[in-house]
C-alpha cells in the first residue's frame, strides 16, 4: 500500500469515526477468511447500513490517537476489521455474534467495541448482543410505566362504581320501605 492509498484510508476512517460518541464500533480479528465469504459478509452488512472495512493496525492506531478514541491496545495486534453503524448497538453486536457462532472453524473473533464513548471487551460485546433491540426495550419500559396508572384508574373506577351501587341499593331499600308503609 503506497502513501496515497494510506492517506485515503486514513481519511475514510476519520470520516466514519467522527462523532464516534453517537456511533457503535466493533473491532474484529479475522483469520483464514476466504474472498467469497468476505464478499457475502460485506453485502449483508451493507444492507443493514453497517460500514465494514479491513484496516491495517498502524493506520487504526493513528486514527484512534487523532480522534482520541479510548480503546484497548488489543485491537492493534494482528489483523483487524472495523464495523460501524449509527443505529442500535445490539443489532451490530448480534450480527457479528451470530456470524461467529455459525462458524465451525472460527474465522474471526470479536476484539471489542466502542459504544457511546465507552470501551467494551469482546465478552461484553457478546453480552450486549443478547439484549433486545432498543425499540423493544423502550416499548417494554413504556408498558411498565403505563401499567400502574392503568391499574390505579381501574381501582378508582371500581370504588366509584361500588359507591354508586351502594347508593342505588339504599335508594331501592328506601323505596321498598316507602311502598310497604
Task: Give the SSE map.
Layout: H1 3-17, E1 24-30, H2 35-47, E2 51-55, H3 57-66, E3 80-85, H4 89-102, E4 108-115, E5 118-121, H5 122-129, H6 134-180
Antiparallel strand pairs: 1-3, 1-4, 2-3, 4-5
Helix pairs in contact: 1-3, 4-5
Strand order of the largest sheet: 2-3-1-4-5
> What order do the SSEs take from the amino end to the carboxyl end, as H and E?
HEHEHEHEEHH
By DSSP (H or I, 4+ residues per run), the number of helices equals 6
From the helix content, strand content and strand pairing, which structural class follows?
A: alpha+beta
The helix fraction, in percent, is 55-70%
CATH superfamily membership of the largest domain, which one? Answer: Ribosomal protein L10, N-terminal RNA-binding domain
What do these coordinates show?
59% of the residues lie in helices and 17% in strands. The protein is α+β, with helices and mostly antiparallel strands and 181 residues long. The protein has two domains: 3-131, Alpha-Beta Plaits; 132-181. The chain has a five-stranded antiparallel β-sheet, sandwiched between helices. A hairpin with a 2-residue loop joins strand 4 (108-115) and strand 5. Helix 1 (3-17) packs across helix 3 and helix 4 crosses helix 5 (122-129). The protein is rod-shaped and about 110 Å long. The N and C termini lie far apart (110 Å). The mean pLDDT is 81.
Amino acid at each position: 500500500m503506497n502513501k496515497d492509498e494510506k492517506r485515503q484510508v486514513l481519511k475514510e476512517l476519520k470520516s466514519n469515526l467522527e462523532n464516534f460518541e453517537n456511533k457503535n464500533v466493533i473491532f474484529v480479528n479475522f483469520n483464514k477468511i476466504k474472498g467469497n465469504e468476505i464478499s457475502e459478509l460485506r453485502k449483508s452488512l451493507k444492507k443493514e447500513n453497517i460500514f465494514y472495512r479491513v484496516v491495517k493496525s498502524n493506520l487504526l492506531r493513528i486514527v484512534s490517537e487523532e480522534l482520541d478514541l479510548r480503546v484497548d491496545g488489543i485491537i492493534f495486534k494482528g489483523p483487524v476489521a472495523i464495523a460501524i453503524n449509527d443505529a442500535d448497538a445490539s443489532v451490530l453486536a448480534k450480527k457479528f455474534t451470530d456470524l461467529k457462532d455459525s462458524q465451525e472453524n472460527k474465522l474471526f473473533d470479536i476484539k471489542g467495541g466502542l459504544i457511546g464513548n465507552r470501551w467494551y471487551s469482546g465478552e461484553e460485546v457478546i453480552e450486549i448482543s443478547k439484549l433486545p433491540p432498543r425499540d423493544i426495550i423502550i416499548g417494554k419500559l413504556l408498558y411498565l410505566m403505563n401499567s400502574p396508572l392503568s391499574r390505579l384508574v381501574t381501582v378508582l373506577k371500581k370504588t366509584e362504581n361500588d359507591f354508586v351501587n351502594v347508593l342505588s341499593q339504599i335508594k331501592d331499600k328506601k323505596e321498598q320501605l316507602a311502598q310497604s308503609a
